[in-house]
Amino acid sequence: MKEETMERSDQELIEGYLAGADRDFELLYNRYKNQLYGYLIKMMPDSRAEADDVFQKSWIKVMQKLPGYRPSDRFQAWLFRIAHNLAIDYFRSRKRRSDHLELGELGDALEPQGKEQPAGDMVRYEISQALDKALDKLPPEQREVFMLRQENIGFKEISKIQKCSINTTLARMQYAVKKLRELLIDII
Length: 188
Prior knowledge:
Layout lengths: L1 H6 L2 H9 L3 H22 L4 H18 L9 H23 L20 H19 L3 H11 L4 H8 L3 H19 L4
Helix pairs in contact: 2-3, 3-4, 3-5, 4-5, 5-8, 6-9, 7-9, 8-9
């Protein structure tokens, strides 16, 4: 299945789905599900359940909006823009409700992998934990730019997602990296 996914472009899969091949949507979903879910978990660290909900709503919205998708857009950026907008809606509704949601733990999602090098795994795990905590201290716009760059999305596309100029996007990344360095200096 992985070979089949990589052989066909996003546009070919979209066209296939719109022509009635549900399998093509499944391939597109499998191509981006992990990136999108990771992005939402980091954007919404307070509640894994809410991140799950936004994840599902994002794919539903993608299915609804695919007939209007423009091939000139990069699908990944388009998908993340939809998820971004739904996450913003979530934050707005949460602010209006002003409920105090129980803080979720990211730790269980970052279990160390592999048994051959437990010391190295432990160090990577601790650094990962520290980075997650440091990311939580960034303003949402800076955190989002940093996380989108980790998904290899270009600054031009990030500026479209965040609906700001590319200079603002670059500045947000610069501030995010500077702040992360300050927060992580004692660990590394």
